[in-house]
Amino acid sequence: MFESAELGHKIDKETYRKAVPELRSALLDAQYELKEQGKIPVIVLVSGQDGAGKGETINILYEWMDPRFISTLAFSAPTDEEQQRPVMWRYWRALPPKGRIGIFAGSWYSGPIHDRIDGIMTKSAVDARIDQINRFEQMLVNEGALILKFWFHLTKDGQRRRLKALEKDPRTAWRVNKWNWDRLKTYDKLQDVVGHVLRMTNTPWAPWIIIEGEDDRYRSLTTGNILLDAIKQRLAGTEKQTTPVAPPVPVNLDGRDVLSELDLTLKIAKKEYENQLAKWQGRISELVRDPRFKAKSLICVFEGSDAAGKGGAVRRITAALDARDYQIVPIAAPTEEERAQPYMWRFWRHVPRMGRVTIFDRSWYGRVLVERVEGFCAEADWLRAYSEINDFEHELADAGAVVVKFWLQIGKDEQLKRFKEREKIEFKRFKITEEDWRNREKWDAYHNAICDMVDRTSTGNAPWTLVEANDKNYARVKILRTVCERLEAALAGADDKSKKKQGT
Fold this sequence. Notes:
Blueprint: H1 13-37, E1 42-48, H2 54-64, E2 70-74, H3 80-83, H4 89-93, E3 101-105, H5 110-117, H6 123-142, E4 146-153, H7 156-168, H8 178-184, H9 187-200, E5 208-212, H10 216-236, H11 270-288, E6 297-304, H12 310-318, E7 326-330, H13 336-339, H14 345-348, E8 357-361, H15 370-373, H16 379-398, E9 401-409, H17 412-424, H18 434-440, H19 443-457, E10 464-468, H20 472-503
Parallel strand pairs: 1-3, 1-4, 2-3, 4-5, 6-8, 6-9, 7-8, 9-10
């Protein structure tokens, strides 16, 4: 992959001097048009060998463009806060909004490359991370992002020359230390690892751009021109880039599905309810105070028919928790800030740290429910969302989160009864809106969307629990019991892993 970046590319001083003013002017024009249109974010990854000019290139881009609309994100070893969450959390939080350019100095590639070189990650673990990265970048591109991935390459002799030149110049000597020279000794191993990673992540939607890094003028002009051409091309395009998605295939021939088979007549007597409520609330309280929970987190997702009792169920959970240890995240229509980001961004920002609980009242499933039914997103967008959601929840579970998802289902007649009751009771009127009545008219469309959602996103790591909610007491007990059972299983699993590790 590196042959074209080992040819000794150079630009003479006079050619560079003449080319820069025109390039700078064109970059500024493209940048202002990008900001004015506000339709796409530009994500620039700057990677490469030590001494290949990563920092200089970033500085040049700041000099040539308007720094007010550029953000540089530098990533080194994860902080304590970042270690308490999934690996990709810190990168999601740093994504630039539409209309801006985000330059990543160090990125989601740095960790697996360095860990593989140092022997911390196995090749299979690196390949698993590569698959995760490819899916992440594909999602960003499908959401409209332009991703440019630069690798600045040096030969082994070229890297040695660069380090010596930097070390000799008093203005740059501070940039070279013993660590850089030690890294030079691992050059061959780095090339082997990087070659594999770049090859496996050189995708059609986010290809790698390998540039020879020994000559500053060549590297700077090449990077600037590639950035300019890519932005201009995307701004001139009428549609965002998307990868094809196959439509769902209907298989329901007898009219039976996961919702129609629920027994909505299930009830629990008041006295039994009070006993069960106390039992399971006490158990939740014990479980989240268990020392083993410090290495876990709990994420509860509540979806359901309008007026199905989500709020009441949430309150029964939080009544058993310390208010300092949980957060309730109500999800409504996205804000202006949220619309400027990929749709999963607003959920990633609320991922809890270990030892904490986050409860989502409505969630990322809006993409495959309300946005699908109401036509707020294209068919290709909600079709690909199933796999993106599964990826998201897999990352959460992989990082120690216990993801518990509830769909609360009530009958159509019961919903009508509750709607009318809400209109009569003063302090409940805020719960019933014109939108609720309008959604009711699309009952069948939502029914089909819900069944698709359950079929496609009920996974081993994050299964759906369908709750028969015509009787609120029955629903609340089932929800509390399910949370306890999932937590108990997760903590027991943590014990088993610990014992197995000690045994080895």
